[in-house]
Amino acid sequence: MSDRTVRVLSVGSALPGPPIDTAALAARFVMDQLWQQWVDTFIGTRTRHLAVDLAIGRPGQSSADLGEIAAARALAGAGLGAGDVDLVVLATATPDTLMPATVNVIADRLRIDGIPTFQLQSGCSGAVQTIDVASSLLATGRAFFEEQTMGRFRPRTRPAPRRPERHCGTTRTR
């Protein structure tokens, strides 16, 4: 293991659509006042964001749409561009499609090219698993920049420039 330090430089996030309160959800699914009280009391969620437009019953934003927004915000927050990224790791329990992987769609939209990508399909623990995979690759020097929809990581020291022909899992060639 290397002595490289991995730290979060920036975080980007994105939520689909406007917040939907419990009353609107109850009206859409014809639930009574008792159901609304139960949700408020036992679940405690007052509003939520849905990727489906309840008025028309169709998706409003895809996982790739949200991932692109969050990743662009994380890059901007770190003051970095697509050319600074050498690894993209995405955790999702809801990929848009299996092929192409949602991570590749996001990387392509952001013009992050010629670098390895990983998509970990997992539920709640996927966030922790993604951070573990990315930080391990960074700390060992197998990759030296990483961007994901949950955050932006960079080691303290940058190794010699990479040779693109040594990388696999590219999104497209330069």
Automatic annotation (TrEMBL):
Coiled-coil boundaries: none
Region named Disordered: 149-174
InterPro entries in UniProt: Thiolase-like (IPR016039)
Database matches in PANTHER family: 3-OXOACYL-[ACYL-CARRIER-PROTEIN] SYNTHASE 3, BETA-KETOACYL-[ACYL-CARRIER-PROTEIN] SYNTHASE III
Official protein name in the record: Beta-ketoacyl-[acyl-carrier-protein] synthase III N-terminal domain-containing protein
The species this protein was found in: Streptomyces salyersiae
